[in-house]
């Protein structure tokens, strides 16, 4: 399939996922996890509270699951194409995931510690063993990973066996040390800080993000194996009632969780409190998947089609745009650029994310008029296929 023949809706899905991920990542780039509570307490005004509520209701735990779901779907689609042509695919995907792993490690080393590409690469290889499973079995596996928190016990065991706390190096900086390093430090000093940040966040990566990602990979594989084409009119009709029901139910619960439940004694009940958070977690993921149905519905109805197509340009260059987020963060928040680390309000971070995405969309559209692939997509493709692929577009 040539780039011109690509299905726009799938790229719109990917671009939309990239859009939402940046709104979350920019807040983390702007203030490390260890400092966020203290920093956020400075912003008690109505506007900041509104922005935080918008992020909680419409962004947190919605877009990473979507991106993971689409990654699993993409793996399956490529494998099915290989199978239809009677071509081997294990070597192909081993190279593909190995290259992605290296890109992820470089991303961590030179740009930002919050990379998930190396995680996707490892889980992607594990997912190859699941492609032949029955669709219902895949759905059950995904549900088990999301519902039953057995990995919480693994996390406790992992942390108990650490002779040196993983966050020791990061905590040694102190809040002011982190601020001065990122605003004023040399680039090599920021790299060292990012290493400590990565190590401190390793438990969350292994025992929160990894199970969620693998569950969504599995659902994506199930969608790829299904006889219903993702985003098609038949797919819309089949999932219409379940989606509306899930959208209403999750919206009600998330509103209750955020606005009513914290004032209740039930919220502080020792046995019930984990249940409320688990239901919120599941509601967020379900609500995020409802986004895909809504986008497909708008697309087929012809509503805001010109706006939706802008997401497709970003989706075509999803890997390059994902890394570009970190480049933007490096410029905005460190001594390599504007040194704005921990100086912006929630509103300013939100506005910067929106402006950055609009610019990314325009840049992506321009790029695709001159080149067939994004720069990193091209490198990834060359390594995967073991040959130099055409890059520039040939003038007609």
From TrEMBL:
Membrane-crossing ranges are 12-35, 55-76, 97-121, 133-151, 205-224, 244-263, 275-299, 319-340, 347-368
UniProt KW keywords: Membrane, Transmembrane, Transmembrane helix
* Alphabetized InterPro entries for the sequence: Bact_Transport_Assoc, DUF418
One matching Pfam family is DUF418
Q: Which residues form the DUF418 domain?
A: 243-386
* Source taxon at top rank: Bacteria
Keyword Membrane attributed: yes
Q: What is this protein called?
A: DUF418 domain-containing protein
């Amino acid at each position: 399939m040539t780039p011109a023949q690509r299905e726009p809706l799938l790229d719109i899905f990917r671009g939309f996922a990239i859009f939402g991920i940046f709104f979350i990542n920019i807040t983390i780039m702007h203030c490390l996890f260890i400092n966020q509570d203290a920093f956020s307490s400075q912003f008690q005004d109505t506007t900041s509270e509104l922005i935080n509520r918008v992020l909680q209701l419409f962004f947190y735990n919605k877009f990473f699951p979507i991106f993971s779901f689409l990654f699993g779907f993409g793996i399956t689609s490529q494998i099915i194409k290989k199978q239809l042509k009677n071509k081997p695919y294990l070597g192909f995907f081993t190279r593909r995931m190995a290259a992605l792993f290296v890109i992820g490690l470089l991303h961590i080393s030179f740009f930002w510690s919050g990379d998930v590409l190396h995680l996707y690469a490892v889980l992607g290889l594990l997912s190859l063993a699941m492609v032949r499973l029955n669709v219902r079995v895949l759905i059950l596996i995904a549900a088990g990973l999301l519902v039953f928190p057995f990995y919480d016990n693994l996390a406790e065991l992992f942390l108990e066996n650490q002779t040196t706390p993983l966050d020791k190096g990061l905590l040694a900086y102190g809040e002011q040390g982190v601020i001065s390093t990122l605003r004023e430090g040399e680039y090599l000093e920021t790299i060292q800080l990012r290493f400590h940040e990565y190590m401190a966040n390793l438990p969350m990566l292994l025992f929160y993000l990894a199970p969620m990602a693998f569950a969504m990979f599995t659902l994506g594989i199930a969608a790829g194996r299904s006889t219903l084409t993702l985003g098609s009119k038949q797919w819309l009709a089949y999932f219409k009632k379940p989606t509306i029901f899930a959208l209403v139910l999750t919206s009600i619960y998330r509103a209750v969780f955020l606005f009513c439940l914290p004032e209740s004694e039930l919220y502080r009940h020792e046995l019930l409190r984990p249940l409320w958070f688990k239901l919120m977690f599941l509601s967020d993921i379900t609500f995020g998947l409802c986004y895909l149905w809504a986008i497909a519905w708008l697309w087929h109805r012809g509503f805001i089609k010109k706006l939706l197509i802008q997401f497709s340009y970003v989706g075509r260059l999803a890997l390059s745009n994902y890394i570009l987020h970190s480049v933007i963060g490096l410029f905005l928040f460190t001594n390599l650029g504007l040194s704005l680390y921990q100086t912006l309000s929630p509103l300013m971070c939100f506005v910067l994310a929106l402006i950055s995405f609009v610019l990314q969309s325009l840049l992506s559209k321009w790029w695709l008029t001159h080149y067939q692939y994004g720069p990193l997509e091209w490198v990834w493709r060359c390594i995967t296929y073991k040959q130099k692929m055409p890059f520039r577009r040939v003038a007609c």
